[in-house]
Amino acid sequence: MNIAEIKKTTEQKMQKSVEAFKQELAKIRTGRAHPGLLDQVHVEYYGSMVPISQVANVTLLDARTISVQPWEKGMGPKIEKAIRESDLGLNPSAQGDLLRVPMPPLTEERRKELTKVVKHAGEEAKVAVRNLRRDANEQAKKLMKEKQITEDEERRSQDEIQKLTDRTVAEIDKLVAAKEAEILAI
């Protein structure tokens, strides 16, 4: 493995960390409805647990209401129960085959809690990025000890990896700030 490969794999892993963080942020709900909100809710379907999106059509009715249309007749009550029992704090109502899932407005206290959750998730993402930086620097040091690269090349690679880390951390900070603004907006 050479320095270019180390940088490339480190950059790819850092991008994966950012993508995972974005997915984590998508799960944190604001006052607005979002079909992806129900992605982590699973329902029993012929003996196995599957995501709601695999047994029903999940769409938005309006900015604060998610519509869930089961594909099979008997699935409505099961889906309703699964949504009610999830930790999302949602209360679906059935209208024939269609389930309406209204988003309750967030209280000021809940908004502040959610911003803390967002900051915590951001810190975890930054720690993951810093761990990747440490691993890359250790690989470069190992190459230097094996006399495959010079000290100057090792130092230069550390500087480049640090710049990559700084860019990635700045991207995470931007995502955190944007999500906080979205949560605190009434």
Automatic annotation (TrEMBL):
Source taxon at top rank: Bacteria
GO cellular component: cytosol
Region (Disordered): 140-159
All copies of domain Ribosome recycling factor, residue ranges: 21-184
Keyword terms, alphabetized: Cytoplasm, Protein biosynthesis
Annotated localization: Cytoplasm
The UniProt record lists the keyword rRNA-binding: no
Gene Ontology molecular functions: ribosomal large subunit binding
Listed InterPro entries: Ribosome_recyc_fac, Ribosome_recyc_fac_dom, RRF_sf
CDD domains reported for this sequence: RRF
Predominant place of localization: cytoplasm
PANTHER family cross-referenced by the UniProt entry: MITOCHONDRIAL RIBOSOME RECYCLING FACTOR PSEUDO 1, RIBOSOME RECYCLING FACTOR
Name this polypeptide is given: Ribosome-recycling factor
Record organism: Caldimonas thermodepolymerans
Organism classification: Bacteria, Pseudomonadati, Pseudomonadota, Betaproteobacteria, Burkholderiales
Originating gene: frr
